[in-house]
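Researcher: Last one for today. Full complex below.
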Amino acid sequence: MKRRQFLTAGGLGLAATTIAAPAVAQSMPDIKWRYAASWPKSLDTLYGGCEYFCKRVAEITDNHFQIQPFAAGEIVPGLQVLDAVSNGTIEMGNTALYYYWGKNPAFTFGTALPFGLNTRQHISWLLWGGGQDMVNDLLKEQNVIGIPTGSTGAQMGGWFRKEIKSMDDLKGLKFRVGGFAGTIIAKVGGVPQQIVAGDIYPALEKGTIDAAEWVGPYDDEKLGFVKVAKYYYYPGWWEGTGQGHNIMNLDKWNTLPKHYQAAVESASRDTFTWVTGKYDAVNPPALKRLLVAGAILKPFPQEVLEGCYTAANEIYADLAKTNPHFGKMYASLTAYRADSLAWMQVAELSFDSFMMRMRTRT
Amino acid sequence: MKRRQFLTAGGLGLAATTIAAPAVAQSMPDIKWRYAASWPKSLDTLYGGCEYFCKRVAEITDNHFQIQPFAAGEIVPGLQVLDAVSNGTIEMGNTALYYYWGKNPAFTFGTALPFGLNTRQHISWLLWGGGQDMVNDLLKEQNVIGIPTGSTGAQMGGWFRKEIKSMDDLKGLKFRVGGFAGTIIAKVGGVPQQIVAGDIYPALEKGTIDAAEWVGPYDDEKLGFVKVAKYYYYPGWWEGTGQGHNIMNLDKWNTLPKHYQAAVESASRDTFTWVTGKYDAVNPPALKRLLVAGAILKPFPQEVLEGCYTAANEIYADLAKTNPHFGKMYASLTAYRADSLAWMQVAELSFDSFMMRMRTRT
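Model: Here's the assembly. Have a good evening.
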């Protein structure tokens, strides 16, 4: 109905032109879309980014294009956002594409490849390295188009009830972990668990699971994990970044006037700076509070990182052979990564590490 | 004239309403602005970002708001963009605010404080740490408002004809360096030089200067420095980031319809991902080419970094006492930085440095 309304009022049909319809209707048709997020409202950076995006699109279209956000479960369950957009139940959504790795493991490239790219590398690869075009080739099979909307930054490795000293400590470990990373945990002998946010704390408290990762200090703090699992490991090697995406149903997208499409594109990229900038601002004080609350910060031992890295690369090599989307994206990402790391370790790393050294001195 | 045109066609005057002017004119007035950049076209990431911004604003306003970009010197000299916007000669510009540190040293906070923040920290501090509001308090004295538009990333320390082994090697060193950093170079005994892009190469070739910094591999390569000064030092501690800004004359800004203001805001932040993403994509292959061409990569010795860091902090302490803008921004930035570095060295640094170690192994 909305689509029909648009075609009548704002399309290029001769009828509308010849009867001299108000010009505003041609240029700025009133359109309302529904926008389902994979995030509960408590993830106020990711969900807040969705609200910010809607506000911005309304502002730049003089309130003619109204996109209404819904939190996970309000109209669509959080993990079914892609399906709902794909079949046109809703016009658009905001999600982490790696939730859909069961449809195709290549979806993980949209959010984070374990041992993949950091935040700046990932958005650069998406926009300039051909990454987003390849993600959209994959999304097209779902009748969907996507635009990145911001990152959590490098995530934490999660909360563990016991210390992890060697690869042996991963054997049989019941670990709540999101997305594609579970396949790597399984390969090294762990038992990946898919548990929704609200159920993680009681499972960790009872010992039904041994460990759980969520996001980073700011989001983790709200779920209270520090009370039941004190060892807080880093880095979350499966998420050197955690990229969100706006996804639009292609049929609905194609009915939008070009300048509304441009408004969505621009507001999405605008949201990238909002979300990423907010995470970078709210995580540091949250980490301080968690340390006061008793969190014990631990780096994963080098042996564990290397063991998981090797396991991940074996999985990738197999997938690259059998899955054309995965193979193409993996070749592109690893070529980008090799050059990028060589550069990042020159000016970026030396600046950051000098500043880190000076911090503890004054 | 343009302003008058807008007021007639799109203002809230009763006349326009009562004679039932085409509604499109009310909602989407035709406006043309001139937009002067501080960049030559050869800085195709910074100037390219300006072109991208204009294209995006045109797209999202259905071509009703046309902003025309001009390269440095076409209508305004590169270092006079703020003046031209301030006095209304042009409606807006794109520049590095630290060029204007002679008006007030606090302008350096808009672009980069030496030994200040990296790229993610700086945009986060601007948007979430109150930084941009404070920069705008300063810009308001020039009748200007600003929005960040993207960063070069951490810059290189520049091209040196001789090795720098100790602080003594900085004594008397004639060093082409941009912005506020020259005051620190002078304090440690160097002789900062302000030289425009086209004159750097011959000065370095003849030995009129001993060293020159510009941006990073991609931009430096085009000026050919590797042929006349082989030592390529890092990091450019005076620019852990290099932020560009859109700046608008406040009177002109206030005549814009709200949704055109929103279009400029959103397209500016959109441009942030374009510019920063492009630098991160084009610098790595440029670094490889420079190494093939004979560049000898050298880190500044720890003694040199620490000596300059101490000198910088002394300058900042003095300025903070006498300059309210500087004092307020410095207190805010250093508080943000202390917490941010403590967090960044956990997940971000450990992820990046693990990936860097693995790169050289495979």
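DSSP finds 16 helices and eleven strands in chain A. Confidence is low (pLDDT under 50) at residues 1-25 of chain A.
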